[in-house]
Amino acid sequence: MLSKDLEKALNEQINAELWSAYLYLSMGMDMESKGLGGIANWFKVQFKEEQAHAEIFMNYVNSRGGRVILAPIAAVDTEWPSILAAFEATLAHEKKVTAMINNLYAMAEAEKDYATRSMLTWFVDEQIEEEETAQGYIDKFKLIGNDGMGIYMLDQELGSRTYTAPSPLASE
Ligand code: MG
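A: This is the predicted complex of the input protein with magnesium ion.
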């Protein structure tokens, strides 16, 4: 059985993952409106991944006899001044998520809730990848600046991203 503290913190994490999904969908819609269909695709895949993260947490809370409470999702920005700004906002947000995951991990450890700690390990690793990917695109978009051909090529590259369910869901 989950402690009440961890149940509450996991519910906050579910809300944060759904907020992340909403944020990336909004970025995708902004890119779409600017004719950047490939970058929009990348953010829409990100949107699906974040929903999957929320689902993993929801499944976990349910499996431990907890209760998932879906709270309202706060509003997100609707426009970013540049592609670079969107990826910088992505990295800043993922750093916050990493801090939340680390905090959950510390809570689980302090409570000697090893099942929760084990479940969180996947997210600890996932966050390394999330930050690394966002940083990678920040570097690339800085490099090309306002070069139209560079933007066109990166839009093509991001357009090739496809969604695959994260392993904790795929193995169910
Ligand atoms: Mg996430």
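The two ends are 21 Å apart (CA to CA). The pocket of magnesium ion is lined by residues 17, 20, 50, 53, 97 (CB under 6 Å).
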